[in-house]
Design a protein that fits this description.
Elements (H helix, E strand, L loop, with lengths): L1 H12 L10 H25 L9 H24 L6 H34 L9 H10 L1 H11 L1 E5 L5 E5 L1 H27 L9 H33 L4 E2 H24 L10 E3 L2 H8 L15 E3 L9 H4 L11 H4 L2
Antiparallel strand pairs: 1-2, 2-3, 4-5
Helix pairs in contact: 2-3, 2-9, 3-4, 3-9, 4-5, 4-6, 4-7, 4-8, 4-9, 6-7, 7-8, 8-9
């Protein structure tokens, strides 16, 4: 009787708990996420250091929102990756992080690219009075449908060995892939068009040159965002939504980190080479066009047109205020000069 009890006790002890200790892939995923969190935190700190609430404008808010959502996703991802084995709740939270933080960062970067298109092509027009800007905002609406599909058609389950598996079903991932590719390709074309129409007799005005540099750098951002996002979503489609949770989360973390690094480069690149002799001209129409969605209420309070020495290094986020430094004699956007 005693031997039987001992045997039964031993049988209860020898239970296969599946994955308990982290494997090599999980350790690599956590190290990658930790590195990405560090980069995102540094970028967010650099962008918000010394920033005052009254100096924020629409363009800066979009950049800070992109950084914050990306950091939130990376931070959530590393916690989920370290706890999702044999844990359906953690597995579900990982999928929700993709649905909200990752998708939110994509909306933020789309809105930022739309803002850059407006700065390049509609210098002296308020946003909601520009047909092109309205059209681009409408182009964001299909993402609402895709978001609903992402919430409705997804895979969240544990394998027999306890591995967390998440992903989107084809009905959600394929529309996301097609939309992401077409929208990014269209925005890339908008920035490429004025650059490919440059002629030898182009007017050599400093303000127009700054427009050209802005379009060129944002073109790079569009290409990078298109490539990284397309590859990431393509893996989801090819796996039919059955990816190990830590693989999916790590790829998305790298995706948002590359996007943030690219945007950070675009909004700060070339600032140090301008020196302390840079001047900028403010115009009331340009200020009202880019500070608000409707500048009618601000036109009287911002009427000044002066030149002053710029004592500090400018970020290209300031273009949302200065409307890419267009002077009163440069009333046409970049694509008018380069046709």
């Amino acid at each position: 009787m005693s031997n039987t009890t001992m045997s039964s006790s031993d049988a209860n002890v020898m239970i296969d708990l599946g994955l308990v200790n982290p494997d090599g892939l999980e350790v690599a995923s956590e190290l990658t996420s930790l590195a990405c969190i560090t980069v995102l935190a540094l970028a967010l700190g650099a962008k918000t250091y010394g920033e005052k609430l009254k100096s924020l404008n629409y363009g800066r808010v979009l950049v800070i929102m992109l950084y914050t959502l990306s950091w939130a996703f990376a931070a959530t991802s590393i916690v989920v990756v370290s706890t999702n084995n044999n844990n359906l709740v953690s597995c579900t939270l990982g999928m929700l992080a993709c649905d909200f933080f990752y998708a939110g960062s994509k909306i933020a970067i789309y809105a930022w690219l739309i803002e850059r298109v407006h700065l390049v092509t509609a210098v002296k027009t308020t946003r909601l009075k520009t047909a092109q800007y309205k059209f681009h905002i409408i182009l964001l609406c299909p993402y609402i449908i895709i978001f609903v599909l992402m919430l409705s058609f997804r895979h969240i389950y544990l394998e027999a060995d306890g591995q967390c598996t998440i992903g989107l079903q084809d009905i959600a991932s394929i529309p996301l892939l097609v939309y992401d590719f077409i929208f990014n390709l269209y925005l890339t074309w908008l920035f490429m068009k004025p650059l490919t129409n440059i002629g030898r007799n182009t007017r050599q005005d400093w303000k127009v040159t700054r427009l050209y540099k802005l379009a060129r750098r944002t073109l790079v951002a569009s290409v990078v965002c298109l490539s990284v996002s397309f590859i990431n979503v393509l893996f989801v489609v090819l796996s039919h939504g059955h990816q190990r949770g830590l693989v999916c989360l790590t790829m998305c973390t790298v995706d948002v980190t590359v996007n943030v690094v690219t945007v950070h480069w675009v909004t700060t690149s070339g600032a140090s080479s301008s020196g302390n002799n840079r001047t900028k001209t403010h115009n009331d129409e340009h200020m009202t066009a880019d500070m608000t969605f409707d500048g009618d209420n601000h036109e009287k309070s911002m009427k000044f047109d002066i030149q002053m020495v710029q004592p500090h290094i400018l970020d290209d986020d300031d273009d949302s205020i200065t409307s890419v430094q267009a002077s009163s004699t440069s009333k046409k956007p970049i694509n008018h000069y380069y046709n």
